[in-house]
Amino acid sequence: MKVIQAVHPEDFKAYQTAQIRERFLLDGIVEPGKINLVYTHYDRMIVGGASPLGTELDLGNYPNLRAEYFLERREIGIINVGGDGTVTADGTAYNVNKLDCLYIGKGTKEVKFASKSADAPAVFFILSAPAHMTYPTALMTNEEAVKVHAGATETANKRTINKYIFLEGIRSCQLVMGLTILEPGSVWNTMPAHVHDRRMEAYFYFDLDKSQKLVHYMGEGNETRHIMMNNHEAVVSPPWSIHSGSATANYKFIWGMAGENQDYTDMDPIAIPDLR
Ligand SMILES: O=C[C@H](O)[C@@H](O)CC(=O)C(=O)O
Ligand SMILES: [Zn+2]
């Protein structure tokens, strides 16, 4: 499992394109027939993808964890962004179709991922954080997710925020997870931008056409940089960094957090004119 170390904001100011990409961009996590996971030292969040084809994929165990099994001291959130699929947790199979979310609590020994059809494979995006107790495994469909309408067509940021794992939804120790859908013609997410010193965040962009590009903005609000991103790529956001994007067409993205609190509204917004 690849490991990403944490970066100091003062050091970040000197980073060139290649360094920014190496330290924050998680590309290649979606690979047909494979599970790819990255261990980040941002709140020890593991970020990855499971893309089963004809055969089931096992979550497995990794030496980095020094655990008997993956979820011995962890919890996991999974959202499917591809074709119909199933996730099996200790023998119980859950239908996790596109935009559905499954939370699996600490103590589950075996997790398996499968696609209903290899011709329309499921693509599972995975977030896993350390957990101190067991919350029940729970499935939430996209219809059941709590929806918040944000932005406007005039500012090209009209979008719907879908919340799944959060204080009023699926309960967890640390994980907060959901996804945001932009309307056609709207291309800006998380603008006005914000930081939340108490939590890290990861973004995973999807349903962005292959011919298009996403520009992800990061850094302190007065010292911003960008990363050019493609469909099915993820990026980690340190607690000191904004995390916002604009693209050449509309798209969707999964966001997820772990850290000091689970209060979604604990954000310090940065006024648009103040960005540098
Ligand atoms: O801390 C919260 C996250 O940055 C996202 O939920 C923001 C987002 O989905 C959006 O504005 O579109
Ligand atoms: Zn945020």
TrEMBL record:
The EC number(s) this enzyme carries: 5.3.1.17
InterPro entries: KduI (IPR007045), KduI/IolB_isomerase (IPR021120), KduI_N (IPR027449), RmlC-like_jellyroll (IPR014710), RmlC_Cupin_sf (IPR011051)
Keyword check for Ion transport: no
Pathway membership, UniProt: Glycan metabolism; pectin degradation; 2-dehydro-3-deoxy-D-gluconate from pectin: step 4/5
GO biological process: D-galacturonate catabolic process; D-glucuronate catabolic process; pectin catabolic process
Residues annotated to bind Zn(2+): 194, 196, 201, 243
Catalytic activity: 5-dehydro-4-deoxy-D-glucuronate = 3-deoxy-D-glycero-2,5-hexodiulosonate
Cofactor, how bound (note): Binds 1 zinc ion per subunit.
Xref: SUPFAM superfamilies: RmlC-like cupins (SSF51182)
Keywords associated with the record: Isomerase, Metal-binding, Zinc
GO molecular function: 4-deoxy-L-threo-5-hexosulose-uronate ketol-isomerase activity; zinc ion binding
Cofactor requirements of the protein: Zn(2+)
EC supergroup of this enzyme: isomerase
General function of this protein: Catalyzes the isomerization of 5-dehydro-4-deoxy-D-glucuronate to 3-deoxy-D-glycero-2,5-hexodiulosonate.
PANTHER family in the record: 4-DEOXY-L-THREO-5-HEXOSULOSE-URONATE KETOL-ISOMERASE
Protein family: Belongs to the KduI family.
Stored HAMAP family: KduI
NCBIfam families: PRK00924.1 (NF002091)
Protein name: 4-deoxy-L-threo-5-hexosulose-uronate ketol-isomerase
Species this chain originates from: Mucilaginibacter mali
